[in-house]
Amino acid sequence: MADVVDSDELLRRIQRARAWAEREEETWKARSDDLRRGDPGGSRDADVRSQAYEAVRKVLDEILTPGVHAADR
Fold first, then answer.
1. d(Cα 30, Cα 16) in Å, to the nearest integer?
2. Cα separations in angstroms, 68 against 20, 37, 55, 56
3. pLDDT number for residue 1
4. Cβ(57)–Cβ(22) under 8 Å?
């Protein structure tokens, strides 16, 4: 079973996950841009991945600061 963690540790884990999702989103956006001319299919795949990480990041943003991101919708 998983270890029991306190709220501070849970917050740190969510913040790390959010930072990771943001880095991945940026990486896939850059890859999509790089592939746009030479490999349109690869560019679309990279764009979809970027959007998936963006969705994860937005969910974690909402967990960390509820209600602040209503304008993003």
1. 21
2. 21, 37, 16, 16
3. 56
4. yes
Indicate whether 73 pLDDT > 80. Answer: no
Estimate the share of the chain in helix, then strand, then coil, as percent rounded to the nearest 5: 80, 0, 20
- Count CA within 13 A, CB hemisphere, residue 3: 5
Confidence at residue 3, expressed as pLDDT on a 0 to 100 scale = 81
Cα–Cα distance for residue pair 39/43, rounded to 1 Å: 6
The tokens for 68 are 């602040």
pLDDT tens digits, residue range 19-33? Answer: 999 999 999 999 999
